[in-house]
Write a structure and sequence with these properties.
Elements (H helix, E strand, L loop, with lengths): L4 E7 L3 H12 L5 E5 L4 E8 L2 E8 L5 H9 L2 E8 L3 H10 L10 E3 L3 E6 L8 E7 L2
Parallel strand pairs: 1-4, 5-8
Antiparallel strand pairs: 1-5, 2-3, 3-4, 6-7, 7-8
Bound molecules: carboxymethyldethia coenzyme *A.
Carboxymethyldethia coenzyme *A binds next to β3, α2 and β5.
Length: 134
Amino acid sequence: MTNNIEHIGIAVKDLEQAKSVYEKLLGTPCYKVEEVNSEGVSTAFFQSGVNKIELLEATNSDSAVAKFIEKKGEGIHHIAFAVNDIKSEMKRLANEGFTVLNDEPKKGADNKLVCFVHPKGTNGVLIELCQEIK
Ligand code: CMX
């Protein structure tokens, strides 16, 4: 079972520019900037009530975020749900017929184990599962 929406990922062309927009919008400073080399992204996180906003800028042209922006432009890239046991949730979703994009959970941004579910099986929305690394 999934828990709350942990964060919403937004693909942006220029992280510095978007960071200052979201600082004004949310009235709170970004609490973390982190590069995730394995995903080809630089990220900036904001707390918004119990949820977070993750801004994502591609750091290379092969990055999923670069491809997304090329095709669709800036905008909502994924919705991430918190889970307590990511491995069992990956198994459950695969058994339900979803296309789980990772064989094993991988280390993502903001101290999380993550995996992704293909947007074709989820009405056009890329889904992330994330579990806090204790
Ligand atoms: N949301 C909705 N649809 C998306 C999408 C997204 N984020 N990314 C791609 N798509 C759509 C494309 O527009 C395309 O649609 P059409 O077939 O209608 O044209 C389709 O998915 C393409 O799918 P694909 O051929 O399987 O391959 P892609 O090379 O475009 O890869 C995906 C898509 C989701 C498999 C890939 O982006 C992926 O593995 N994502 C997971 C990892 C990731 O996104 N990392 C960056 C974030 C890291 C972080 O949060 O820190």
